[in-house]
């Protein structure tokens, strides 16, 4: 559809010139820059923008809640290296999208949140407009950049700035504010076309300094027990062949963080995933590639890392401020990951010394021991299931379907799956990321299916599923090849807690006993399955993945099987005060 408004009176007033308006300029600007999909929730004042975008050939995916639409846009950005776009209404809809926007920024996912808004003159005077809110001011602290467009002639440059900000340097979330009055502004189509901007090279290569590369290689060459840690930044970079070449040329054991699993297969001889504790504690030089020394890596210090001062760190990151954020970085290498890794490989030459055999053998021995110790737990076929038996069944599903995408969230469901389910291809494991935000599951699953066309297995705890479970209707509406598995243990962490007061209310962590989540999917025309053993779970998921039909499998987990907060219960502060019943003495 051309960017034309068929408004007879307006055309007559303009001397029969072809006209366009803000609605069509937004659409044309997005299409010009390769944006093919928008995720959102329709409503005032952006309902017509969604309709027109769909008519113009953009795929518009309407979800049931803006936070889920934002999560979908964010993970679309991670998978494609183009900014995912989320479109929301003003005020409450905008606020619903902010969690996803902030989470995208924290996780370095390129995303643009576009929201309709109230007019400036009434917002600034606080005159009580419909959904009145100074959205730009609220968004700024939560994203990488924020822009407002007030004139139709500036839409092209506003969209261009948002795209460049989202993907350049360290990627992140961007907010673009479009007041309602902007969308109906009219200008000539010729002037509109000239105002559009095609963004050239929005994320240019950033070449590392030669001295930084030499320094890193010198540190690495002196290591007796080197380790490479791959983060989701390495997965985002799509420098898969370069990273594989670096690992295999160097012979250094590697540890993949959760969303970096599959850059090299978890079954690779150099993968130290099953020997994580040994690798972190006993290594002497650690090279971080697209990974940050945040809480997920104990900030690079403490018991996890052995004796203080026993490590030297090399860090590859596009953001200079990331260096020395927790510990001293002996060799910072600043640049995009593809360029940095390529420079390291070139500097290594053809004669790079292999790590000492006692180190690689120690890692392999510990890995083999842990795998052997875990194997019987993954083979259990009891009813009700425990987490390991259930995950063992899903482990086999992914092994047989390495191209499938695994979406994972929960407490025990997430923490245990990270170690149990092997991944074989890059960017096939999507999970909660840096903040551990629950509720990403259905949004991520929807976008993964839309953006890749691959089958999706979304595995969630019953608590995590509750944050976005209504999106099963969206999955059915768009007939997406998504199989959702809900690990149902009747509550948060466990389903066995009781009200400590003895009152009639259930415990704060308890859910309805023996709920049938599978019937939610059936209500919208999808398939449901209720399973109680790992064998039943495997058969049900195989059938769903083979059919491509939207499916929800309600997997009954022993209510007593979980532990509080999974493996991060230490982050939950404990009260040291014992109160007596009744009044204080």
Report on this structure.
- The chain has 23 helices and 19 strands.
- Residues 1-8 and 581-585 have low confidence and may be disordered.
- Helix 4 (66-80) runs parallel beside helix 5 and helix 17 crosses helix 18.
- By secondary structure, the protein is α/β, with parallel strands linked by helices.
- The N and C termini lie far apart (76 Å).
- The protein has 3 domains: 8-195, Thiamin diphosphate (ThDP)-binding fold, Pyr/PP domains (Rossmann fold), CATH 3.40.50; 210-365, 3-Layer(aba) Sandwich (Rossmann fold), CATH 3.40.50.1220; 379-561, Rossmann fold (3-Layer(aba) Sandwich), CATH 3.40.50.
Condensed summary:
The protein is of the alpha/beta class and 585 residues long. The chain has 23 helices and 19 strands.
- Overall number of strands: 19
Oligomeric description of these chains: single chain
**Uncertain stretches of 5 or more adjacent residues:** 1-8, 581-585
Mean pLDDT: 94
Enumerate the strands of the largest sheet in spatial order, edge to edge or round the barrel: 3-2-4-5-7-6
DSSP helical segment count:
23
């Amino acid at each position: 559809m051309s960017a034309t408004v068929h408004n007879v009176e307006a055309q007559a007033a303009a001397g029969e010139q072809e006209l366009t308006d803000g609605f069509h300029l937004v659409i044309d600007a997005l299409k010009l820059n390769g944006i093919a999909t928008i995720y959102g929730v329709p409503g005032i004042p952006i309902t017509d923008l969604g309709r027109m975008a769909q008519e113009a050939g953009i795929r518009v995916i309407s979800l049931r809640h803006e936070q889920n639409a934002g999560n979908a846009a964010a993970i679309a950005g991670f998978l494609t290296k183009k900014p995912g776009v989320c479109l929301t209404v003003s005020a409450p809809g905008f606020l619903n999208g902010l969690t996803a926007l902030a989470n995208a920024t924290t996780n370095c996912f390129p995303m643009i949140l576009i929201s309709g808004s109230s007019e400036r003159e009434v917002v600034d005077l606080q005159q009580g407009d419909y959904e009145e809110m100074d959205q730009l001011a609220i968004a700024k602290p939560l994203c990488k950049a924020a822009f407002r467009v007030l004139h139709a002639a500036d839409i092209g440059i506003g969209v261009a700035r948002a795209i460049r900000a989202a993907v350049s340097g360290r990627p992140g979330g961007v907010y673009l504010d479009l007041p309602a009055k902007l969308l109906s502004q009219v200008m000539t189509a010729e002037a509109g076309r000239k105002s559009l901007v095609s963004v050239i090279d929005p994320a240019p290569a950033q070449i590392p300094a030669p001295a930084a590369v030499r320094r890193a290689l010198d540190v690495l060459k002196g290591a007796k027990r080197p380790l490479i840690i791959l983060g989701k930044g390495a997965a985002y970079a799509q420098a898969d062949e370069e990273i594989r070449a670096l690992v295999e040329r160097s012979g250094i054991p590697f540890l993949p963080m959760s969303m970096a699993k599959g850059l090299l297969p978890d079954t690779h001889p150099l993968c130290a995933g099953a020997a994580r504790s040994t690798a972190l504690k006993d290594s002497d030089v650690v090279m971080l590639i697209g990974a940050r020394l945040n809480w997920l890596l104990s900030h690079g210090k403490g018991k996890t890392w052995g004796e203080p001062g026993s490590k030297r760190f090399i860090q590859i990151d596009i953001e200079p401020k990331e260096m020395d954020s927790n510990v001293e970085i002996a060799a910072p290498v600043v640049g995009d990951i593809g360029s940095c890794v390529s420079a390291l490989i070139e500097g290594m030459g053809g004669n790079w010394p292999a790590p000492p055999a006692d180190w690689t053998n120690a890692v392999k021995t510990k890995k083999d021991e842990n795998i052997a110790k875990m194997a019987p737990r993954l083979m259990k076929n009891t009813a009700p299931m425990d987490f390991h038996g259930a995950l063992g069944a899903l482990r086999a599903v992914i092994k047989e379907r390495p191209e499938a995408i695994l979406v994972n969230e929960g407490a025990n469901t997430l923490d245990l799956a990270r170690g149990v389910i092997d991944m074989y291809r890059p960017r096939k494991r999507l999970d909660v990321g840096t903040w551990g935000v629950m509720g990403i599951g259905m949004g991520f699953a929807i976008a993964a299916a839309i953006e890749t066309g691959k089958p999706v297995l979304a595995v969630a705890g019953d608590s995590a599923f509750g944050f976005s479970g209504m999106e099963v209707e969206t999955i059915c509406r768009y007939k997406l090849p998504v199989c959702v598995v809900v690990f149902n243990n009747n509550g948060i962490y466990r389903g066995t807690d009781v009200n400590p007061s003895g009152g009639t209310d259930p415990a704060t962590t308890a859910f309805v006993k023996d709920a049938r989540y599978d019937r939610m999917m059936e209500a919208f025309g999808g398939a449901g399955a209720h399973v109680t053993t790992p064998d039943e779970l495997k058969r049900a998921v195989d059938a769903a993945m083979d059919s491509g039909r939207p499916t929800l499998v309600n997997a009954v987990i022993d209510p007593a099987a979980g532990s509080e907060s999974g493996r991060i219960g230490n982050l939950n502060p404990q009260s040291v005060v014992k109160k007596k019943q009744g009044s204080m003495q």
